[in-house]
Amino acid sequence: MAQAGEKNVRRAGEGRREDPALGQSSPRTGRAAAELAADLPVAPALEARDLTLSWDGEHVVVQGVSVDVAPGEVCCLVGRSGCGKTTILHALAGLTTPVSGRVLLHGEDVTGRPGRVSYMLQKDLLLPSRRIIDNVCLPLVLAGTRRDEARAKAAPLFERFGLAGCERKWPSELSGGMRQRAAFLRTYLMGADVTLLDEPFSALDALTRTDVRRWFVDVAAELGLSALVITHDVDEAVSMASRIYVLAGAPSAGEPSHVAGVVEVDRVESESFELTDEYLAAKRQVMALLG
Amino acid sequence: MARPVDRSEPSRARRVLTPLLTIVALLALWQAVVVVGIVPNFLLPTPVQVVQALVEDAALLASHCVTTLAEAAAGLAAGVALGFVFAVLMDRFESFYLAFEPLMTISQTIPTVAIAPLLVLWLGYGALPKVVLVIISTFFPITVSLASGFRSVDPDVIDLMRTMNASRWQIFWYAKLPAAADQFFSGLKISATYAIVGAVIAEWLGGNEGLGVYMTRVRKSFSYDRMFSAIIVISALSLGLMKLVELAQRACMPWKRAERNNNER
Q1: Nearest chain B Cα to A91, which residue?
Q2: Distance CA A189, CA A199 (A)
Q3: Which pTM was predicted?
Q4: Is residue A20's pLDDT more than 50?
Q5: What is the pLDDT of residue A269?
Q6: Quick one: angle between helices B94-107 and B128-151, nearest 10?
Q7: Set of chain A residues whose Cβ sits within 8 Å of the Cβ of B253
Q8: Which is more confidently placed, B239 or B258?
Q9: In 3D, which of B69, B91, B80 has the Cα closest to residue B139?
């Protein structure tokens, strides 16, 4: 099975193709490019092209990272703590401007322009002074929707997001898992079709994390979300993503991070995907790339 | 066998009764010390004499109270408004913060009693120097508490709001202002007590009306029982203002009750 899995691994730099539209190279392998061409008749929802990022303008943290997220696809970016995962996500969200490289959203250059993709950070960041309904409505209200209208738009979604009955509660009255669901509903209501999630389940206990993760995968599939999730948990990545970008490097030691390889996950319809050979093969490949 | 230590919270009755009984015991001790003659009565009136003076001068004290309260309230309101503006400017402009933060700290090392006579000299015996002194006394705690509250906002919240295209004003209104509310009310509580004390000190050093003026008059006539009754009134006013601030805080920050309940669970 491991051998079967090996064919789904692409090391960084293998079979890089020239992107005629951009005049830049991308990290896709020949096989992946062919698959992508077959699977994705439309352009990727989110593309990062050769991003080089720095914390202070001097020390390069991430070098030459390229990431694609196809429409309706959940991808993961895996790497050790401190390797610059959040820095990449900040750049993709437009919160920072890369030293070089570009971020494209449906082909449009959105480099350094916040507010174009939905972003869910590590902490739920619910405003303690607002009730849950007003917290989740925040993106709508900030965009100019009247509060009543925003509430009316958000209310029907509470049940789907497992938050029925929580509308009038304060954030402090909710459990960690419920707060995370509320944060995800708020992220969804940002309205962008691409969502970035920065270790969204890391603050939860193991059992809640598994439940919320499964719930997230279902909801993302149902809503057709394109998502890029960063995590340092290999199991989490394999259980959620159809494609995993493995980040390697040690910026604090002066070695900028780069994409060491991309692992395609052969997802099989199973109640317990975590126990299948496909799951284990993908996990092995990610572990090998992490080193 | 060793008994486990009971670390549970004291009951409400215990929380109220313990300090109350302590006060009653101290008053009884005070009464006894004077009655027995350990301290001569012309130097220290008994608590009973103080209460009698309080009742006898109630109407006069009330009219002086109104003056002091009006000066304190006007000064506090102006001090809060000015402090708010300063805190916002310090949050918005880094250079403004750098320019004024040390100056404000230095200004607080100048004793109020040293400024009060100057204010009376410059602004006369009316209400103005009293109000100005209250503004000077209350401005600092408000500014410092608000400025530090604005800066306490989690930078991730600001990043999150930026990804929602929030304007600077929206970030201030939805994130910074509520985050500073707790510290603002702590500063307001301190300012409320400073306001009363500031007004009384200014009246003491020159004026026609107010509790400070009343205190100067009774001191000159060696009516120490009335002096003590004025002190009680000043304490009551300060406590009353603090209670009002607490009520305002409860009304303005309803989420704190939920947080408290959650912590107690």
Answers
A1: B163
A2: 19
A3: 0.77
A4: no
A5: 66
A6: 130
A7: 129
A8: B239
A9: B80
